[in-house]
Amino acid sequence: AQSVAQPEDQVNVAEGNPLTVKCTYSVSGNPYLFWYVQYPNRGLQFLLKYITGDNLVKGSYGFEAEFNKSQTSFHLKKPSALVSDSALYFCAVREDTNAGKSTFGDGTTLTVKP
Amino acid sequence: DGGITQSPKYLFRKEGQNVTLSCEQNLNHDAMYWYRQDPGQGLRLIYYSQIVNDFQKGDIAEGYSVSREKKESFPLTVTSAQKNPTAFYLCASSMAPTSLNGYTFGSGTRLTVV
User: What is the pLDDT of residues B62-83, one digit of tens each?
Assistant: First the structure.
C-alpha cells in the first residue's frame, strides 16, 4: 500500500525568507513523487515531480524539491518566498507498480507574510 | 487550449436527489479520475477509469456512480445513497495509467446539500 504524510497543516514564513513544506511517503516499490499547488476554489496545478535520477528536482515558479530515499521524504523548497506563493500545497505518491492511482497528502497551507 | 472542463462550478442538491457532475477533457488522455476534497482531509479517490468503457472503485465509491462511454467524458453521479455529499469535487486526467507525468485537474464543482 502507498501512503503520504504532510506533518504540518500550516507553514508561515516572511516574504524573502526560504520556505520548506514537508512530505514523507511509504511505498512497497519505487516511488513516483509529485507536488501540486491549489489556490482557493480552484483545481490543483502540477508543480514538479521526481521519477528517477537527480535527487534535487526543479519545477515551476522557482520551487524545487529534494528526494531523500533513506528518510523517505520529498520536501518542497524555495529559496525566497513571495506573498503570491500563499496557497494550499499537496504532496502525492504513486508506486511504480501501481498503475494510475496516486495517493495525496492532506495538504499544507502556506502563508507568506509581507 | 487543451484542458479539463468541469461543470457546473456550483451545484445545490436537495435531500434524496441524484445529481450529475460533468467532466470533459480535450487532452486525448486515456485515464480519468474523480476526487473528493473535504477541509483538512486532502483528496480522496472516488472512481477512476483507465480506458473507455472501464472504471474501478476508489477508496470512497459508496453512494457514487460513473460512466465512461467516451474518451473525453467521465461524468460522476452523486446518488441519494451518499449521506454526506457536501464537498468540493475534482476531476483529473493523465495521458495513460502508467504515465510518469502528473495529473491535469479541472477547476472543480462545489456541491452543497440544501
Answer: 999 999 999 999 999 999 888 8
φ, ψ of residue A91 to 5 degrees: the values are -100, 145
In sequence order, the 6+-apart residues with CB closer than 8 A to the CB of A37 are A44, A45, A47, A87, A88, A89, A90
Longest dimension (CA), chain A: 44
Report whether B31 contacts B98 (CB < 8 A). Answer: no
Choose among B97, B104, B110: nearest Cβ to A100: B97
- C-alpha cell of A37? 499547488
Measured in angstroms, the CA of A104 and the nearest CA of chain B are apart by: 6
Q: How confident is the model at residue B6 (pLDDT cuts 50, 70, 90)?
A: very high
Question: For residues A101 and B92, is the Cβ–Cβ distance under 8 A?
Answer: no
Alpha carbon distance A9, B40 (integer Å): 8
How far is Cα A100 from Cα B103, in angstroms, rounded to an integer?
10
